[in-house]
Automatic annotation (TrEMBL):
Function: Part of the tripartite ATP-independent periplasmic (TRAP) transport system.
Full protein name: TRAP transporter large permease protein
Transmembrane segments: 6-36, 56-76, 96-125, 137-160, 172-195, 216-240, 246-266, 278-298, 318-348, 360-386, 398-419
Organism of this sequence: Tistrella bauzanensis
Domain TRAP C4-dicarboxylate transport system permease DctM subunit: 8-422
Quaternary structure and interacting proteins, as annotated: The complex comprises the extracytoplasmic solute receptor protein and the two transmembrane proteins.
């Protein structure tokens, strides 16, 4: 166990000195093996590195990333926002609700929170401020709602969780629907009540009205995005395609949308390829490093020791769960979501199973908790993306705007703990 503690200290030392997380994991593994292992164990590193990236299901990761990059230059984010607005504009807080729904829908073809914040925020935040919403409400709504990109499938964090824990990814995707819909409902309920009471919006702000003809015409704006969502997610739920095959369908669909919109040019496509390659390589390096570090921890019997220590503490399993949630919240303030999942799962997952928690249910609660990671300083990337969408906005204003939504995310975790069947029964 001493060797494991030293390895963890070394890892966080690398992170504090801004060493890229993939190299920090690999470096800590190498140092740990040299210090506490034997030379023969080094020969396993190549096989582990190959095995970590040779999983067929991991092909979905670069494909979904490429789909997101292609979608980002098609302009469908703006079309989607305008289409939803025509249906919700007359409700109190209708424009803010539109931002929530647009983030959820775009998240279903993006898989990442930051991408959702950039695309939807660039359209929604300036428009909300122009219509009389406060900067806090405008930026906070988009920043918090962008986390739906990690919860509503296809979700890259869920794919990586499935790979590391050997949990069926199709089941994880299916289970993500209920938490996602619950968050959307609570966010919209809060917005409607707050704006109805005059909070988050300037007095006298007007609400635009649209005719039924204009609302029906909006279907042509949102139609391409909805078709892409149905093609990708529907093919998985119907059992027609695996997540990897659905990701390939998504890339083809995104290319067709870009072609039909007239935005498919060689410079834009080349940029999408370069960005997708860069992001995919980063994710794969982190995955390799996490697998190597997990091998070191297994060699030093850290997961087994942690499980035995937790079980002998005499705490109830819910007390252990609460401590884990608090630890994940703190980690989310300093590390990126993908890194957190890949680093912690080799240690935490055996304990979760020993305590009798359902692994798919735990994945959903974990991902909701990880929503805080993108909206809590100092590393909450969606905060800075939302801030950049509205010049002159301070990071403090964005944080204040997200606080009510953070409280609602805590409520979602509590609801899932009280009624785990919302997740477990849904996949059976």
């Amino acid at each position: 166990m001493t060797g494991g503690i030293v390895a963890l200290i070394l890892l966080f030392g690398f992170v504090l000195f801004a060493v890229p997380i993939g190299f920090a994991l690999s470096g800590a593994t190498l140092a740990g093996l040299l210090a506490f292992g034997d030379v023969g164990s080094l020969s396993a590193l190549a096989n582990i590195s190959w095995g970590a990236t040779a999983e067929f299901v991991l092909t979905a990761v670069p494909l979904f990333i490429l789909m997101s990059e292609i979608i980002s230059f098609t302009g469908i984010g703006r079309d989607l926002f305008l289409a939803i607005e025509r249906w919700l504009s007359r409700l109190p807080g209708g424009l803010a609700m539109t931002a929530v729904f647009a983030c959820a829908a775009f998240g279903a073809v993006s898989g990442t929170g930051v991408g959702v914040a950039a695309v939807i925020g660039g359209v929604a935040i300036p428009e909300m401020v122009r219509r009389g919403y406060t900067r806090e409400m405008s930026t906070g709504t988009v920043a918090a709602s962008s986390a739906l990109g990690m919860i509503i499938p296809p979700s890259l964090p869920l794919i990586l969780y499935g790979v590391v824990t050997e949990t069926p990814i199709a089941d994880l995707f299916l289970a993500g629907l209920v938490p996602g819909l619950l968050i959307i409902a609570l966010f919209c309920l809060y917005i409607g009540v707050a704006v109805g009471l005059g909070h988050g919006i300037e007095p006298g702000a007007t609400r635009p009205s649209f005719t039924w003809g204009e609302r029906l015409a909006s279907v042509t704006l949102a139609g391409p995005t909805l078709l892409l969502i149905v093609a990708v997610i529907g093919s998985i739920y119907a059992g027609i395609a695996t997540p990897t095959e659905a990701a390939a369908v998504g890339v083809i669909g995104a290319l067709l949308l870009a072609l039909l919109s007239g935005k498919l040019t060689w410079p834009s496509f080349r940029t999408a390829l370069v960005n997708a390659t860069r992001t995919s390589c980063m994710v794969m390096f982190v995955l390799i490093g996490a697998m190597l570090f997990g091998y070191l921890l297994g060699l030093l019997r850290v997961p087994q020791s942690v499980s035995e220590w937790v079980l002998h503490m005499g705490l109830s399993r819910w007390a252990v769960f609460a401590l884990l949630m608090l630890a994940y919240f703190v980690l989310g303030m300093f590390l990126e979501v993908t890194s957190i999942i890949l680093i912690t799962m080799p240690i935490v997952y055996p304990t979760i199973i020993q305590l009798g928690f359902d692994p798919i249910w735990f994945a959903m609660v974990l991902i909701v908790n990880m929503s805080f990671a993108v909206i809590t300083p100092p590393v909450g990337l969606c905060l800075y993306v939302a801030k950049s969408c509205l010049p002159g906005t301070s990071i403090g204003q964005v944080v204040r705007g997200t606080v009510p939504f953070m409280a609602l995310l805590v409520l979602v975790i509590v609801i899932l703990c009280i009624a785990p069947e919302l997740v477990t029964d849904f996949i059976r």
